Amino acid sequence: MHLAKDRGRITKIVLGWAAIALVLLAGWLCAKNDYILRLMMLAAVDMIVVIPFGLLIGHMGYLAMGQASFFGLGAYVVGNLTVLRFDMDYWPALLAAVVITGAVAYLLSFPLFRLRGYHFAIGTLGVGQLAYLVFNSWTWFSGGTFGTSGVPPPTIGQFEISTNSRFYLLASIFLLVAGFSSWWLVRGHVGLALRAIRQDEDLAAARGLDVLRYKRFVFVYAAVFAGLAGGLYAPMQISFDPSSFTVWSSFEYVIYVIIGGAGTLFGPVVGVVFVTVLEQVIQGFGQWNQMVFGLLVVIVVLFFRGGLWGAIRLLWDALLPIVAGRQRPFARSLKAEGIGQ
Amino acid sequence: MSAILEVRDVSKRFGGVEAVKNVSFEIARGGFVGLIGPNGAGKTTMVNLISKHQSLTGGAIYLDGEPIHPLPVFRVARDGISRTYQQNRLFLEDSVIDNIRTGMVWSGGTIRKELSYPGAHGPEDARLKALVDFFELAPYCNAMPSDLSHVLRRRAEIAQALALAPKLLLLDEPFAGFSREESEELLGLLRECRHGGLTILLIEHNMEVVMQACEHLYVMHHGALLAAGTPTEIKSNREVVSVYLGGEL
Fold first, then answer.
1. Are A208 and B103 an interchain contact pair (Cβ–Cβ within 8 Å)?
2. In this structure, is residue A285 part of a structural domain?
3. A242 found inside a domain
4. pLDDT above 80 for A126
5. Confidence band (pLDDT; 50, 70, 90) for B245?
6. Quick one: pLDDT at residue A287?
7. What does the pLDDT read at residue A320?
8. Interface of chain B toward chain A, CB-CB under 8 angstroms
């Protein structure tokens, strides 16, 4: 009985993720225009950053305002190791970018998690600004204001990933990894812990939760994927410089999460899609485009408190009342045991 | 009977204010002990120090002979001290059942064979069911805490605290806002837990409940320990009566 139920659940999960992979593939097949492909490629990179980042600010409730620093660190480590100072192959350089970003985030977590609330936000803002200054000034590492150019494209055997189309597919693979791992974390005990930390971390600690360990884990996890995304971003560009990793870039990640729906897994994805499309649409407004962008962001935040994903779910629930009747996972498992009937 | 908790020369200073001054006391294993005193006496600070919500300025606290004052909050909780709060605290976005389960999930499935109160040991779901049934929360399992009455929220909070299978339960004014009947019901449940091996430290302003429930009392005043003894001894202690009770009981 349980085995059949488990098998059914696993089948649903596999089918769900296969459907998501198909959507990514369908996007690739439909986009014949290279410009659209480039937008999709960059959006996929942003999604790799914001899905895990959503766990930090949405699920755990810690507003971090320096995430672009980890993205930039990943990009610069790859640039430094492959072209600027060394002659390393792309893949080991990408691995180094992930490890170094994770290590830096781990070390930063010690002072940062002495802070909470607004103080934590300001602390991470400081880290973001500090990183920007380092990228600007430490020429040996980053190439300074001139930036880093000519990161060689990744290769798999003789197959070179050098077009927008191929980069999109590569980014999509890592996007699936980011999405699946975040989903897997959120649906289990980690998700319960993060929700508890957001609600009342002192109470969570009093109930035996090693709060600091979870906070560190999620911070490093989000930074690792930001570093990975940065490492993927490096060869996608002819050149990149510190202006791509400013504090404003960090704000953009926050905007993606908030607009899309903080505390949801797919909200940040919706946020990236919305902002990417919006930026294209408002180009027609000329010098007024930033004002229109700001106005629309305010409208979304004002009228959709749960973000766009929240609005989509509300609509879904209204259309399919049967979906609204579903229960929380724990309550469901308990009902199966005859508790809470 | 051996002491489960030893508090030795504990002090807590907030800037220029000494909230707790060199307080020492012991709680016997399986006891139902009261900590009383007027507002501002330092009772809640004492509970915060024992549960490590606040750090000591001086002194030491031992649980089963092991120092717990250097440990973080979650370790103290896992080692066997659980607590409730003066202002009812639950995870408001989670259902009652999820709230109770949190304690089990995070305490690492603690099993203490010496304890036999509901939910103290056994498989996770059985422990959960035992606690839900014991506190008569079954009809409210899927309700959110904000939908419950004050009394039910308090029961859910105590059930959540007991889900850690603690050796020592610290209760900070659990009877506040309760009618006499509601107090008696909760007291009955706590007594049952106590018979199952649970040690209870109760902070309470309701003297009727304190005198009825506790077999030993500590009285704090201005951050210091003023008196200790049985309820009968405390009732007849002139110093206590003058600073706290304001007359004979």
1. yes
2. no
3. yes
4. yes
5. low
6. 84
7. 78
8. 51, 53, 72-74, 77-78, 82-83, 85, 89-95, 97-98, 101-103, 105-108, 125, 128-129, 132, 138, 141-142, 160-161, 163-164
pLDDT at A100: 98
Q: How far is B132 from chain A (nearest CA, A)?
A: 8
For A313-329, what is each residue's pLDDT tens digit?
888 888 877 655 555 55
Domain boundaries, position A78: 31-268
Tell me: pLDDT of A336 over 50.
no
> Is A207 in contact with B93 (Cβ distance < 8 A)?
no
Give B101-159 pLDDT, tens digit per residue. Answer: 988 888 766 667 788 898 888 888 899 999 999 999 999 999 999 999 999 999 999 99
Which chain B residues are closer than 8 Å to A202 by Cβ? Answer: 53, 73
What SS3 string covers chain A? Answer: CHHHHHHHHHHHHHHHHHHHHHHHHHHHHHCCCHHHHHHHHHHHHHHHHHHHHHHHHHHCCCCCCCHHHHHHHHHHHHHHHHHHCCCCCHHHHHHHHHHHHHHHHHHHHHHHCCCCHHHHHHHHHHHHHHHHHHHHHCHHHHCHHHCEECCCCCEECCEECCCHHHHHHHHHHHHHHHHHHHHHHHHCHHHHHHHHHHHHHHHHHHCCCCHHHHHHHHHHHHHHHHHHHHHHHHHHCCEECHHHHCHHHHHHHHHHHHHHCCCCCCHHHHHHHHHHHHHHHHHHHHHHHHHHHHHHHHHHHHHCCCHHHHHHHHHHHHHCHHHHCCCCHHHHHHHHCCCCC
Pairs of residues, one from chain A and one from chain B, whose beta carbons lie less than 8 Å apart: 98
Q: Is residue A321 part of a domain?
A: no
Per CATH, the number for B3-245 is: 3.40.50.300
Residue of A nearest to B128 (CA): A339
Quote the mean pLDDT of chain B: 93
